Amino acid sequence: MTQPTPLxxxxxxxxxxxxxxxxxxxxxxxxxxxxxxxxxxVVGESxxxxxxxxxxxxxxxxxxxxxxxxxITFDGTDILAAREASVRxxxxxxxxxxxxxxxxxxxxxxxxxxxxAEVLVIHKLADRKTALISAIEALANAGIDHPEVRAxxxxxxxxxxxxxxxxIAIALAARPALVVADEPTSALDVTVQRHILDHIGTLTxxxxxxxxxxxxxxxxxxDRADRILVLSQGEVVEHGTPDEILGNPQHPYTRSLIxxxxxxxxxxxxxxxRARQDVSADALSPTPLLEARDLAKTFGRTDDAPRAVDGVSxxxxxxxxxxxVGESxxxxxxxxxxxxxxxxxxxxTVVFDGEDxxxxxxxxxxQLRRRIQVVYQNPFASLDPRLSxxxxxxxxxxxxxxxxxxxxxxxxxxxxxxVALPASALARKPxxxxxxxxxxxxxxxxxxxxxxxxxxxxxxxxLDVRVQSQILSLLAGLQAELGVAYLFISHDLAVVRQVSDxxxxxxxxxxxxxxxxDAIFDTPQHEYTRELLAAIPRGPREPAITRGEQHS
Amino acid sequence: xxxxxxxxxxxxxxxxxxxxxxxxEQSTSRTRFVVGYLRSRPGLIVSVVWxxxxxxxxxxxxxxxxxxxxxxxxxxxxxxxxxxxxxxDQIGRDLFTRVVYGAQLSIRAAAVAIxxxxxxxxxxxxxxxxxxxxxxxxxxxxxxxxLSIPGLLLALAFVVALGFGTINVAIAxxxxxxxTNARVLRSEVLKVKHSVFVEAAHAGGATPxxxxxxxxxxxxxxxxxxxxxxxxxxxxxxxxSLSFLGYGAQPPIPEWGSLISGGRxxxxxxxxxxxxxxxxxxxTVLAGNRVARAFTGEGTIR
Lengths: 552, 302
Prior knowledge:
The structure holds 2 protein chains of 2 kinds. Chain A folds into 2 domains: 8-25 and 33-260, 3-Layer(aba) Sandwich (Rossmann fold); 270-371 and 451-537, P-loop containing nucleotide triphosphate hydrolases (Rossmann fold). Helices cover 37% and strands 23% of the residues of chain A. Chain A has 22 helices and 20 strands. In chain A, strand 17, helix 18 and strand 18 form a beta-alpha-beta unit. By secondary structure, chain B is mainly α. Chain B has a domain at 89-295: MetI-like fold (Orthogonal Bundle). In chain B, helix 8 (178-192) packs across helix 10. Mean pLDDT of chain B is 83; it is low at 1-23.
């Protein structure tokens, strides 16, 4: 850091959230500097205070939050102490803000062009006549195709990635000196994510703007930042260059983050190989447990309706894991739901243990539920909020009348132990548990009826990285112990690599490539697979392989 | 690469499963919260106390008065005094006693009205929302018809069909609240039935009936229950109105509406005959509304 004066200087900021019952110290003395033109990443899990810090920078703290100490100085102005009006002159003009969720940050009833022009008009960088022309220019710079057409569209006509580009255009339209990007790509698909991050990088480099990048992904931070700050429970526990942080982490929290980050490991089957030492021989029976042939699903009645799933065939062996990878809209969840018999395929067959289950109805379909179970992506939505954990876990047993009251209670206690929750959790309600704990409950529920196949629909994507790795190792351990087969749905190739025997890549409803995990990752055949692989963030300069091995 | 041992129970508890047993601490903080909440809302305390007294009066009227509501105990139409705090009526009965005994009928009738409205309305809403399709269409058009007729007029029509008497009045009043209850529950059911946990129950092998009553109903009925206190006020008012018109309790049985009706001939000479029971109705309705406001999430941070 050769520059003498920092552009942004954060000193010992403390922020509390007050509710009617308790006070939460969300940020406890965070301090750092950002110099002109530099990219600084703030990394942490949910609840670490990273987004609260970012919100304080742009004075967007929610009403319940109060800054109890500290100062934030931007180019001579104390943002926390200054009058509202003088801060307003900075925001949008000198400080650009890129929010996390592009779907809610655009006004749905305003045209795109007007929303970009607004920031220019407010800061008198353009008058009403020239603003729209400048806005179209800004949209073009943000990498939007046909900017003059897009400028006249409304937000609902754009995809998530395009909306995020619009927000980038708004943030950069006034050529700010600092850009605060709060998880700018977390809501987007991996390949889109990479393009957006590349684009933010290029644009800010051209402008010479500094970037404060808030992210939960250490891999993304290492890829993009000059310096990384690691935040945990409202405090900066470590800061340094990506090489220092990844190569020689000092704080135990940083080490656990690195250990858990799937993208920083390249060896395949991390969890598999450790959990499953020598079950392979007997588990491999010749007939597959589940076989799907030529599945197709069309939504809507017309002949030319788009095909959500288009000719997908797959098979899963007993006790093995097949992963389906793809972006949103690739048909991976629809495929899973067809196999679960929650939606009917337009054509194709599903054969489970030698029996065609595609046409099963009524009672026989209900009995099939015993053998195929599901774990959903969002453990906050998949558990009935009014039931206790014990009741939730025993619910399938009760629905299928497989056990009496006493037996159910005993089985629930057993399962809670199996998924490594304390017995006291049985009487709790879901809202009293963390995300990781809830996902353990959902897994216990799926296993309660001793199914032969469990469909895992993005089981870890709603969880923090360290919790992710705990859940993944739990799943691998349970598979080794119980011999259950998994159909693992994910958009995250790095996670998939750690848990799968075989991988299928879905793209626009078609299975474009499938094979063993090693084959897919080492010798990808399809263009799209290669693009997905390239999108995995893996740290700067040196290849991740050597870095991964430094820690062993 | 760092070690990924399979997480076994003992270690996992240390890492992730911090379900600490803090129920004792939680209960004291809850008590403090409730005390603070009530202290800043004296009106709510008064309302609750009033309603509790009223319910007590309807169950054990002798708690409040030792006099017989049908017996003549003094001279006719004496103004309120220490002996007869509401005065006496046109044939010398103690008005306070008659209002206390009147609570018995009025509160019971209100309970019946609420019960009828709740059960029938909830059932219609539940079925319409969950089944959908033409069933929903037919049920909701019937509800639309009910909604298009003014409540009191509808109740009058029902009473005429069912016959006079307090319980029939109560049923009629209950029937008029079916429409709103059904619509409230239907909209909640529409939200809840697409929840992931409902699909999870389905994937867990639950039958539709089981899903409906174990998962959908308990998760959608809360907004309806919070409307109950408001329904109570409305029912008291509607029942009193119908009694005033002469469709409810027949003399000499005391009921709030009929007490007012009986006193209106003496409005100029004995104001207390209408004013006292009238005030009791007003205070009861206000108290019910106040409690309803507390139920519908007043004071919570949104």
